[in-house]
Specification:
Length: 128
């Protein structure tokens, strides 16, 4: 059972099982000492963000079968590196955040008010 907390102080909910996400590929944005990139912010991917990510050297939309990665599409949910989300925010293309599935340690990098301003509710439409 996952005892991690989300940024709202509740239990950390799953971000996505399809595509399977998380540094540990558990579906949750859990983190640990091996997760140097801090894949802790659950987002709902957008086309502008995917384009931005590609231009900064992280192509998340191209399938990579050798890694069993089908590529992301707009609307998919994904555990994103906190610093990448912050970088996208500064570029004006930050994808919406699923607060209930975003790990509490994200608050060390982005304040709660900013995350709330970019929130996407886990109860709105497709997801995990």
């Amino acid at each position: 059972m996952n005892a991690s907390k989300n940024v709202l102080g509740g239990a950390l909910l799953a971000c996505s099982y399809s595509p399977l996400t998380g540094f540990y590929r558990t579906g949750c944005c859990e983190t640990g000492p091996d997760d140097i990139g801090r894949h802790i912010i659950c987002v709902r991917v957008t086309e502008p963000f995917l384009g931005f990510s590609r231009t900064v050297g992280n192509d998340l939309s191209t399938p990579r079968p050798e890694y069993r990665f089908a590529g992301l599409n707009p609307g998919d949910r994904w555990c994103l590196c906190a610093l990448r989300w912050k970088e996208a925010l500064e570029a004006g293309v930050a994808p919406p955040v699923v607060l209930e599935a975003t790990h509490e340690s994200a608050l060390r990098i982005v304040d709660l008010e900013t995350l709330k301003a970019h929130a996407y509710s886990a109860t709105q439409g497709p997801g995990a």
